[in-house]
Amino acid sequence: MEHLLIIRFSALGDVAMTVPVVYSLARQYPELRITVLSKDFMQPLFSRLPSNVHFIGVNLKKEYAGLKGLNRLFRRICEEQITAVADLHDVLRTQYLRFRFRMKGIPTAHIRKERNGRKQLTRRKNKKLVPQKTSFRKYTDVLAASGYPVETDFRSLFGDGRGDLSLLPFTEKKDDAIWIGIAPFAAHKGKIYPLEQMERIIARLSEYPAIHIFLFGADGSEQQLLHDWHQRYPHTTAVPDKRLTLDKELILISHLDVMLSMDSANMHLASLVATPVVSIWGATHPYAGFAGWNQPAENQLQAELPCRPCSIFGNRPCFRKDYACLHRIKTEEILDKLNHIAHFRPAP
I want to staple 144 with a disulfide (CB 3.0 to 4.6 A). Which of 41, 136, 149, 317 is the partner? Predict the structure, then answer.
């Protein structure tokens, strides 16, 4: 039996973007055995895929750290009788693993990051505002190079339905209730909408009795701020306080009427369960290829500035020093877009 190994470590959002492609591959090649190799906590993203998809989760900071760890990992994977390798990451770790597989005569293919196009998109002078290949397209290119051309036909991890809400510590959603998710954080400052402006949005939404707001974020300082907002505004839940697993967060997100998110992982998680996303783009731009799966362009909010985008990942300091790309997106514009999707008029 042919057995394809797909490798993608990296951040949650990047790995989430592999799901529509891996799902489509599994559906279109039911006789192909597929093993996804990623960080161990990513497993819930793949647990609902077709039965020919298997997942190997690893901890690259402990058991498989360093060169010795990679050699140990390679020996473990070789026990799976891999016949081809698709590297969707192309970093030093995966390059080394590819090398080891090639030495055994196993064919490999890897992602082309097309850095020149990215540089032209983000440079300050003579910028070329041209859409780059999406990550989804780049992933399918790798699969095609591996001998498995794919047409992506993914809808949701829950098919045409939603997750089982009875598994969560929330009351059942009433028919007239509007559930809005807000994920105000991202890995870098260039992607975070000003928190004082975000708080104004939460304050406005909390005035509607029919609306319940779920605030998403990580442990630590993010959780503390979300908890403070929960204490300050009615009809809100700080999701980190509930200690949900990733699998249960996906169930909750599948029941939202809309998610408000930065260019961050929650945009991609919502996309995987067919929840509409209003996304905010500052230093980054959808043209870089990282927009959510099946999310329409009209729901991507951004300020038109000649300096945008200045970064692919939002990690470059703002040369203007004012992050105008984020501050100029008006709260009313965001509320209007949320209202257009979730229909919570009349105003209180």
Answer: 149
Q: Is residue 24 situated within a structural domain?
A: yes
Bridge partner residues of 37 (DSSP):
7, 56
In Å, what is the CA distance from 272 to each residue of 85, 106, 201, 244?
25, 32, 25, 18
**Of the candidates 94, 86, 101, 95, the residue with the CA atom closest to the CA atom of residue 149:** 86
User: Domain for residue 159, yes or no?
Assistant: no
* 267 token code pair: 């945009």
Q: Are 276 and 216 found together in one domain?
A: yes
Burial class (CB in 10 A: 0-12, 13-18, 19+), 295: buried
Give the CATH number of the domain where residue 276 resides: 3.40.50.2000
For residues 84 and 176, state if they share a domain.
Answer: no
- In which domain, by residue range, is 120 found? 3-145
How many domains does the structure of the chain reveal? Answer: 2
Are 126 and 258 members of one domain?
no
Structure tokens at 114: 């097309």
Backbone angles phi, psi at 343, to 5 degrees: 60, 70
| 126 & 220 share domain | no
Query: Among all chains, which residue has been given the structure tokens 């998680």?
Result: 269
Domain boundary among 113, 145, 177: 145
